[in-house]
């Protein structure tokens, strides 16, 4: 009756009998996005042969997690804020994807100033998601972003997975890791959609001066390029240094400032981050703001309990807690810098903030090793000290030290690094031209 084209279904409806040819075998593959996602740190570390010396306890100076050794707990007021939020039973459900209004307002009150007026605040699942959202809302496949070198590897991991080209602008170790402004500006073209500035720096521990930030802003302004400011280490600067936010110095460049509780409050596992939208001239406008709202809906927002505790954390954490943390990091940095400055073949660069110190390796004096990866791998094998090779930050012949370890372990680690270098250091040999003179 239906000429074989349809048959009656169980509910009485008609549907075609002809279907597309079916697959003959299972063929499930990862997506292009998955295949294009690569964490440079994991790629390098997973390829290293890390076999510690069984006669020496391992000292890991490689992980940017201040909680690893248990010597840097968060403040009691932070813990109490979390307990109160849980006990209140008010924060067990879904929050708005961009965060509770009360929590966002608390952040706005904490960070807003006449010099850096805020347009809005978006709460995120850690600073990493804040960076993800910021790149996602600013960039399309085929665009390019400018990323510091050395710099945090996540920027490239996220961008490349989205089909965004990464252009690396150099930081200058001889100038305390200031940006090479001429190099930075030379990389900008019509597809440049974002300039990433990390201040204070991971992995360098450097802090840009007010004057240098202003020069960076002039470059961005000249080419109408918005800035993603990674300021997760904001305010974590040593006494005597200052670290103004980029937004406080910008008169026209729109800025998405990414931050979070992770480092300053010493709770990276709590995954509370944020984007502070600074758009005093309405360059971003409502469209970009709405784009961030839409992107935030992909995972339905940050942890509701921590949002409930946020206002109390921001308002009640005593200044002494911040001061004690910074004092410890500065002291450990000075110990590390002073110890390694006298080690032949090493050139440490004293940081001004954050939790890191970079050390240059004069590879010509260490012919036993092919480069920084080989150097740090053998340092583990012989001395059970693990420092992250800076090739993970696309900056070879350096290694990064995390200075959050207890002081006695920092002293011990530096002693072992000295012993390792003394064993392998070779003076430069004279070249033929020297012999002819």
TrEMBL record:
Gene3D superfamilies xrefs: Aspartate Aminotransferase, domain 1 (3.90.1150.10), Type I PLP-dependent aspartate aminotransferase-like (Major domain) (3.40.640.10)
Main function: Transaminase involved in tyrosine breakdown. Converts tyrosine to p-hydroxyphenylpyruvate.
EC identifiers of the protein: 2.6.1.5
One family name in Pfam for this protein: Aminotran_1_2
Alphabetized SUPFAM superfamilies for the sequence: PLP-dependent transferases
Biological processes, Gene Ontology terms: L-phenylalanine catabolic process; L-tyrosine catabolic process
Top-level division of the source organism's lineage: Eukaryota
Protein name (database record): Tyrosine aminotransferase
Domain (Aminotransferase class I/classII large) ranges: 57-417
Assembly with partners or alone: Homodimer.
Keyword Transferase (UniProt): yes
Catalyses which reaction(s): L-tyrosine + 2-oxoglutarate = 3-(4-hydroxyphenyl)pyruvate + L-glutamate
Gene: tat
InterPro entries reported in the protein's UniProt record: Aminotransferase_I/II_large, NHTrfase_class1_PyrdxlP-BS, PyrdxlP-dep_Trfase, PyrdxlP-dep_Trfase_major, PyrdxlP-dep_Trfase_small, TyrNic_aminoTrfase, Tyrosine_aminoTrfase
Cofactor: pyridoxal 5'-phosphate
N6-(pyridoxal phosphate)lysine modification, residue list: 263
Key words, A-Z: Aminotransferase, Phenylalanine catabolism, Pyridoxal phosphate, Transferase, Tyrosine catabolism
Pathway as given in its UniProt record: Amino-acid degradation; L-phenylalanine degradation; acetoacetate and fumarate from L-phenylalanine: step 2/6
Family the entry assigns: Belongs to the class-I pyridoxal-phosphate-dependent aminotransferase family.
GO molecular function: L-tyrosine-2-oxoglutarate transaminase activity; pyridoxal phosphate binding
């Amino acid at each position: 009756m239906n000429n074989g084209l349809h048959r009656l279904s169980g509910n009485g409806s008609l549907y075609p009998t002809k279907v597309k040819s079916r697959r003959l075998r299972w063929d499930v593959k990862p997506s292009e996005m998955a295949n294009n996602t690569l964490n440079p740190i994991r790629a390098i570390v997973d390829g290293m042969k890390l076999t510690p010396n069984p006669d020496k306890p391992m000292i890991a100076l490689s992980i940017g997690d201040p909680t690893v050794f248990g010597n840097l707990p968060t403040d009691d007021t932070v813990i109490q804020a979390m307990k109160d939020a849980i006990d209140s039973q008010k924060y067990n459900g879904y929050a708005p994807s961009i965060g509770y209004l009360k929590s966002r307002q608390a952040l706005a009150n904490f960070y807003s100033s006449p010099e850096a007026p805020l347009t809005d605040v978006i709460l995120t699942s850690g600073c990493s998601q804040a960076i993800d959202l910021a790149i996602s809302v600013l960039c399309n496949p085929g665009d390019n972003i400018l990323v510091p070198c050395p710099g945090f590897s996540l920027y490239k991991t996220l961008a490349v997975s989205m089909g965004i080209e990464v252009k690396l602008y150099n930081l200058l170790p001889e100038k305390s890791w200031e940006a090479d402004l001429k190099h930075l500006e030379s990389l900008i073209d019509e597809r440049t959609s974002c300039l990433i500035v990390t201040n204070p720096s991971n992995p360098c521990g450097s802090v840009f001066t007010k004057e240098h930030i202003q020069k960076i802003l002039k470059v961005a302004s000249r080419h109408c390029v918005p800035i993603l400011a990674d300021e997760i280490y904001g305010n974590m600067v040593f006494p005597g240094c200052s670290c103004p936010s980029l937004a406080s110095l910008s008169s026209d460049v729109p800025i998405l400032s990414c931050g979070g509780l992770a480092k300053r409050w010493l709770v990276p596992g709590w995954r509370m981050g944020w984007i502070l939208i600074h758009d005093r001239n309405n360059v971003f406008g409502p469209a970009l703001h709405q784009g961030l709202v839409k992107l935030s809906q992909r995972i339905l927002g940050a942890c509701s309990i921590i949002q409930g505790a946020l206002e109390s954390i921001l308002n009640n954490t005593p200044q002494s807690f911040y001061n004690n943390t910074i004092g410890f990091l500065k002291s450990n940095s000075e110990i590390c810098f002073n110890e390694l400055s006298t080690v032949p073949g090493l050139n440490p660069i004293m940081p001004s903030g954050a939790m890191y110190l970079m050390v240059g390796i004069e590879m010509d004096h260490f012919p036993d090793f092919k480069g920084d990866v080989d150097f740090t791998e053998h340092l583990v094998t012989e001395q059970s000290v693990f420092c992250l090779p800076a090739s993970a930050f696309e900056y070879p012949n350096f290694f990064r030290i995390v200075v959050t370890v207890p002081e006695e372990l920092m002293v011990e680690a530096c002693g072992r690094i000295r012993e390792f270098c003394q064993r392998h250091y070779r003076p430069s040999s004279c070249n033929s031209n020297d012999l002819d003179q």
